[in-house]
């Protein structure tokens, strides 16, 4: 270079005097020395320009012209506004400062008759309100690394202290005034979208990463921002609402060529309730050292090129630590805040519009982000807020929800694909953990919580979220897949806890803020500006027209969301109320434990597709309910569970499908065992009823204070289908849990309900199959041989239809209904239902006192009796509501109803009275004007114990010109009427000795009939009563009366309808007819051997047709009910009928000797059962064992 050439050493020829140097070389040497000096001077940072500008005070007034008079609306005062600029060789420093600022409204005065300030810094007398410093350094400067720490541009913002007063009336006035000043908006023309050239994904990995620059360590921009204190005061004209204090907000932004780093810290935030009478004066405050600490690092082109396949490299990293924030939710306070915000509806609508536009831009950005699979690494630790909900604004009882600790971390991995892609799809795997979540009840006294009563034991939840970053082009995995597991969840509630929760919902949630709307004066003063503003805004509406052309192409359906949750268990433990005073509230007494309800192993799965369809399913493995009362001895504590032997199945399975054709909901409940102990269920229900009763007053106040909300418009109903199936439930009704053999009713059935609803048609079909009711002991191991069928298996079918606006039509059909009523059944029902009616002791005050002079003579004029009151003709009659028929129709039909009244001993009682009927009826207009028309066929027989035969109690009717009979027919009509004949009518009656004048008239009130029931029969009613029938009815009534008054202990001995006793002295062989069913023997046996003294129990054979069963029991034909016997080594006796009571002698022949002998079949009735005794004609009973008898 030139410097290198002329900086060389001088040549030695200069010493020779006769050599002259060229003039040009001397000039170049002097210029080189001058450049060296300038270079040394240029390294010094010389000040080239310094400027300072300051304005001592600025005053701006905005006025409104009213009646040619200017009235100030807003006044802005700025004190100490200035700037400084210093320009040097290698840097530039610029600063701006603001000492004070005030914004006030002279039109409004505060409580001290001073103008209302919106923004003020009157308390800030030492420091400037705002200081802004900007330093820009030269990248080629000599001290860039030492003096400027490699920072090219640095911005420091310091905000000391500012007070903002949000005054409702003042702000509304200012907003309306400023809106009137806004210019008209010009119509915007829609811009055509610019289509950028998309880059092929195949070439992404072929890019080469850029070379590392020597300026990578240089910081392009460094921003510091510091907010010392910001106070916001919210108030209305009459009272102050709240104060918000924000302290210590520090933020920093560092921008480099390779990365951008942002940090933010907030030390404290406090919200104070300005109500001096408030018990909780801090609705929000911090318990730790800082509110949050945020750090985000964004790397530039970090995943470009070959680094895309490195899963440890990310585009952005986020670190967030949040301290514990305590929120005291007092609805009165938060309602006042919401009422304050709702006053600015116009501003809120503008904000909503801006939010929508920002959301659209954000959606575009998210779409672009998804296409290039940007990676965001998260490391978040949040000490979740503690939410405190007081019972009311003045109550010390609180509910505390500690949301525990939330941690969020993620990692990235390449998805396993079936096909090979040049650009591998990346999946973001995020883990969210929620630990130590708990809920408890406490008491707030002396500015602290005194006790903790646990309602929800510490809970842990872990959720895994997998996000497909290549969802725009890779659809083999869902866009978002969420799977979670909830550890065992334990809830503990007592009556006091439930009362506190209900009273909190009623009193705190129902307590209004009492905030008043803006004054009328404000509306009057701003009406003109509102009209002007409205007109101007309406003229400047932006109209954007766009044309969209869609090309119909097949779209592949993909899974957008997949959700899978699993709950290990959910346990609810109920405690009785603690009546003892002074006990420690933070401890539970195990003696007060009442019940434990547990849901075991629940799972939920949801799948959402891109076409809008949703598939969801919920499964419950088991559900248990246990009686935990220690003071009561129980045969079994289990009230609800899965039936034994079906543990591998799920108790409940719910599936939901939503698509274009509508929604379908399927629900299956199977193999559930329910012990419905009336006493236990009432005890559990009593806890909730008492808790609800204690909060009823607050609930009534809530209904009165809350305004009525406008009903939302009815949305069009899409097609909805619901299918509910209940398989093999077993419901046991029992009254006494202490005994395993306590009387119980067991109900088993299967239920199916199908509902389909669409805009054109509604239909519901319900079927109850094989419903059966049995009376038996409580536990299953005690039921063998002690089961009485109360209701024989029968089927119910119900169907309802409605097309469009047409009236509803329904059908109810029952094919056969067979009900048995016996003393043991009556005793069981009474014992179970006795728990429903708890007898209360009658106090002396409740006993009616006999009034004095009850039998003394009185004058009718002095008696105030409603039926003796005189009518007032001028009195207006009650308005009559017209009932319009709707055309609704319900058809009911029961083909056969068999009612059996039985008496006897044990569970196998004997029918004494049989009633058979059939029912056919119609119900019209059940929602308005009920009209019932039914027809009942009745046939009744009673059992003649003297002869052991069935005789008709209600005589059947002969059919003319035939030998057939028909049952008695009864017609029943009932209708809902509104008959208005006036309030009273006159009925004259002569009074002889009771009144003074014979001309007086009595007025009698006649009530308005609302229901008319008509019972009629066209046939003659013939009832036959005999001495034997009366005796039977007397015995039947006595048996039922004893069953109703005594306990079930008297029913222990079993006896069959037919009991065969062998008293012949020899073994006999018995062959019953096919109409008998032998008890307690092997199935399929036809011949039975009886030794001397043994018995054989028989009953009627059950048939499928109930009519045949009824006919067989009432006729007792000798051709069907008979037995054949064969004594040992004797011939077989012919058919012996078992229809009538009496004695018959039958001849048998000895097989070896051929001698004929006689046997007697004696039939007696004992309490309805037929006792058949096979004996010899002569029997001798020896009572004295010492006496010896011999026969000659």
From TrEMBL:
Pfam family, one: VPS13_M
Domain VPS13-like middle region: 233-1040
Residue ranges of the region described as Disordered: 509-535
Feature: compositional bias, Basic and acidic residues: 521-535
Highest rank taxon of the organism: Eukaryota
Biased amino acid composition, Polar residues: 509-519
Keywords per UniProt: Transport
GO biological process, one term: protein retention in Golgi apparatus
Domain Chorein N-terminal residue range list: 33-220
Protein name: Uncharacterized protein
Organism: Bambusicola thoracicus (Chinese bamboo-partridge)
Lineage: Eukaryota, Metazoa, Chordata, Craniata, Vertebrata
